[in-house]
Write a structure and sequence with these properties.
The chain has 99 residues and is α+β, with helices and mostly antiparallel strands. Helix content is 38%, strand content 29%. A hairpin with a 2-residue loop joins strand 3 and strand 4. Helix 1 packs antiparallel against helix 2. The longest helix is centred in the middle third of the chain and has 20 residues.
Length: 99
């Protein structure tokens, strides 16, 4: 069975929020670039699931930078990779549930 990526509602809401903001501030071209980069990185994650940086305080949770301001967290299971959250690194670090 091939491994697949599962995203949570929290992750999808944050992607939508970032896309709306990016479109408003920088235009549709920037939104397309963001979504393309996200899709590309998630596809790479399927090929190289161990490429992320392991978290010291969470077992089996890894992360990688999507953009200079956005970090994606994920957990690897035998049949799937779950992506629970996308964190804006500019926000208060106390709000990061993975910190």
């Amino acid at each position: 069975m091939e491994r697949r990526i599962i995203t949570t509602p929290i992750f999808r809401r944050k992607v939508e929020k970032i896309s709306r903001y990016t479109g408003k501030e920088f235009g549709n071209k920037a939104v397309i670039e963001f979504i393309t980069k996200l899709d590309s990185r998630l596809n790479l994650l399927l090929k190289y699931p161990d490429s992320g940086r392991p978290l010291l305080n969470r077992a089996n949770v890894k992360s990688f930078l999507l953009t200079p301001h956005n970090k994606i967290y994920y957990k690897i299971y035998p049949s799937r990779i779950t992506v629970p959250d996308l964190i804006d690194m500019r926000e208060n670090p106390d709000k990061n549930p993975f910190a």
